[in-house]
Design a protein that fits this description.
Layout (H helix, E strand, L loop, with lengths): L2 H14 L5 H13 L5 H4 L7 H16 L3 H5 L1 E4 L2 E4 L11 H15 L4 E5 L5 H9 L4 E6 L2 H13 L5 E5 L10 E6 L14 H4 L15 H9 L4 E10 L5 H10 L2 E8 L5 E8 L3
Parallel strand pairs: 3-4, 3-6, 4-5, 6-7
Antiparallel strand pairs: 1-2, 7-9, 8-9
Helix pairs in contact: 1-2, 1-4, 2-4, 6-7
This protein binds glutamine.
Length: 282
Amino acid sequence: MKISQILNKAVLQLKECNKPSPRLDAEVILANLLEVERLYFILHKDQDIQEDLVEEYKQLIGRRCKGEPVAYIVGHQEFMGLDFIVNKKVLIPRPDTEILVEYVVEYIKQREEDVNILDIGCGSGAIGLSIASQFPKSQVTLVDISPEALELAKENARKLNIKNGQFVLSDCFESISDKYHIIVSNPPYIPAKDIEDLQIEVSTYEPRGALDGGIDGLDFYRRIATEAKEYLLKGSLLAFEIGYNQGNAVIEILKENDYKHVKKLKDLGGNDRIVVGELKTG
Ligand code: GLN
């Protein structure tokens, strides 16, 4: 079968199962299978593909049709210009989370010193490792409660050749003893009862432990904001990703816990997505 025929068939199938970006998905999955760039298809439309690869491709498109995210099917996701390995044990890094990383990067640049950074609930390592890659002299500690997530974060550090990351298996601060200039986290923040209502890509395929923020979705903000006070140096930064409707609630949590200069920032879609604050004492 020719590349153009295979792609057209896959696009049709993905349209029938109502996937929102059928052509992109079909091309990304085929490019990954053939180990080429998507651009390759423009010049090689008429190339024949071996039957066994066509069969394999059909299975992958079948998985996408059932709702599995493309990132899990191909096994990686770009974030901050870096290619992260992902699997179903970790949340897929989102473009909106880049706003959090960019804020932290700017904050570090302004401090003009080497800093210690802690990433709580690191998952694939997307946040902590992309910060670490930009500041090789800073130390970034990445923690997660999931051993599988931590293994993946380590694997990503190896693959990306990032040497200034440390990895600790820890339920929030339980196994942490140092102090930090910056604590950053994209904790689970979906209210438990709302998880089933998310799109199937998220509710069925992404790990519940990375999504479930308790009854009102705010459990981890309360816990981290309170416990972080013991682990932040004076005048240092706490930076959270938040759900689109949690801005004011998380601002309140930080203020109640004595953080100053508390503010929220918007994501690419214009929704509240980040809340930051600095510790008054430490
Ligand atoms: N941004 C994710 C979503 O809405 C949730 C991430 C999280 O809970 N930290 O699908």
